[in-house]
Structures are given as structure tokens and as C-alpha cells.
Design goal:
By secondary structure, this protein is α/β, with parallel strands linked by helices. It is built from 9 helices and 7 strands. Strands 3-2-1-4-5-7-6 form a 7-stranded mixed beta sheet, with helices on both faces. Strand 2, helix 5 and strand 3 form a beta-alpha-beta unit. Helix 1 crosses helix 5.
Length: about 220
């Protein structure tokens, strides 16, 4: 769905702490929390229940995703990210809090959605503060474009949702313009599970820079 060879991220080599290494390279912990990409994912088998599954793309240090999963035990959550330090942090948080309804995939989110997620199988997709790629020559790297929404349209079930937040006004307007073109997505005020959510690390940085936080929520109606 993305243009050939163009990714929405650059995989930077951030510093991995001893604590993160402990969870990243422990085979038992990896097996328990990291899902391997092997064909279409069977959520019932993975989570051992029939609860709806929500995908969170680019979870950063995992604080928000951990918090949402803990507050909503009747939903399953799948975090997708490529940055190992953040993955190590989230695995530690999962183990510390014994969170059963949260799993992780360390892969490109677009590829996972295309190849490993069944059609009409997701209750929702959340994306908090995706890279805005502000320079014009880099905007082709933006994750959220028409091709990406086309992909979500096939993967999200009826009454499911898309939830996006950004502190970049121009990107927010672009996202709204894309989503408003879809007859089977209806704008809603908020998704219940995200009401009174905690702020992400990137969100706090944006607020310190006096950026306005733009949040948008859409429900699939067909």
C-alpha cells in the first residue's frame, strides 16, 4: 500500500538499556509477548479468548498502550512498532503488571496489516503522534495516506474505529480531508476507551512547544 521502497519510518539505533536488553533478548519473555509473523493471525488462539482486538501503531515507550490495556481487560491489544528500546520497555511493563491482553509485533505495521491481519477482524486501529515528516520532500513517507486508509477499511469490522492524534496542524488537516471522503467512515466525538487517557511522551513535548493537539475519531458504519 505504500510506494515501493518507501517506509513511514527510519529505523534509528537508539540506546538500549540493560533493563531493556533483559526483556528483548530473553527467549521466554519474547515467546510470551512478541508475536511472530507467520501467516494470518488467529487472535482467539493468541489471546485465548473471543474478545475484540485493537491494533496500536507506533506505541513509543508503551506507557499509553499499557494504561489503556489495563483499563480495558475485555479488549485485546496488539502493539506494532519497529524500535527495539520501546519494545523492551513495553515488554517489561507487561511483565511487571502481568498484562494478559497485550501482545507486540516488531515489524512494519503496513506489512503486518497487509499480510497477517484478516479482513474485518479488527475492532479498531489507534495511531498516536505518527511522524509528521514536516519537510515537503519527506511527506511521501507519511504513514496516513489514502492507500493506508483503504487498507484499514478492509481490516476494520463494522462499528469498529480509527483513532488518530497529532500535534502537527497541517498533517491533521490532511488526515481529516482523507477520512472525510469515505462514506463508510463517520466522524464521532470520541472512542470510549480513550476518554481521559494519559498523555504520551511526544504529546507532552508538543504541549511544551505550545502545539495544539489534534485528535480525530471515526467509526466504520458499513
Amino acid at each position: 500500500m505504500e510506494k515501493t521502497g518507501i517506509k513511514s519510518y527510519v529505523k534509528r539505533s537508539g540506546r538500549i538499556t540493560k533493563s531493556q536488553k533483559k526483556y528483548l533478548f530473553n527467549e521466554k519473555k519474547i515467546k510470551e509477548n512478541l508475536i511472530q509473523r507467520e501467516g494470518l493471525l488467529d487472535f482467539k488462539k493468541i489471546y485465548e479468548n473471543d474478545n475484540d482486538c485493537i491494533v496500536d501503531i507506533g506505541f513509543g515507550n508503551g506507557d499509553l498502550l499499557k494504561s489503556i490495556a489495563l483499563k480495558n481487560p475485555n479488549y485485546n491489544f496488539l502493539g506494532i512498532d519497529v524500535y527495539e528500546p520501546g519494545i523492551g520497555q513495553l515488554i517489561k511493563k507487561i511483565k511487571d503488571k502481568d498484562i494478559k491482553n497485550l501482545k507486540i509485533i516488531c515489524e512494519d505495521a503496513v506489512e503486518v496489516l497487509k499480510e497477517n491481519i484478516k479482513e474485518n477482524s479488527l475492532y479498531g486501529v489507534s495511531i498516536f503522534f505518527p511522524d509528521p515528516w514536516p519537510k515537503k520532500r519527506h511527506q511521501k513517507r507519511r504513514l496516513i495516506n489514502k492507500d493506508f486508509i483503504n487498507l484499514l477499511e478492509f481490516k476494520i469490522k463494522n462499528k469498529g474505529f480509527i483513532k488518530i492524534a497529532t500535534d502537527w496542524k497541517e498533517y491533521a488537516l490532511e488526515i481529516e480531508n482523507i477520512l472525510s471522503d469515505y462514506e463508510n467512515f463517520r466522524k464521532v466525538k470520541e472512542i470510549n476507551i480513550f476518554k481521559n487517557r494519559e498523555k504520551t511522551k511526544f504529546e507532552k513535548k508538543g504541549i511544551c512547544l505550545n502545539h495544539i493537539i489534534h485528535e480525530t475519531s471515526y467509526e466504520k458504519i458499513l
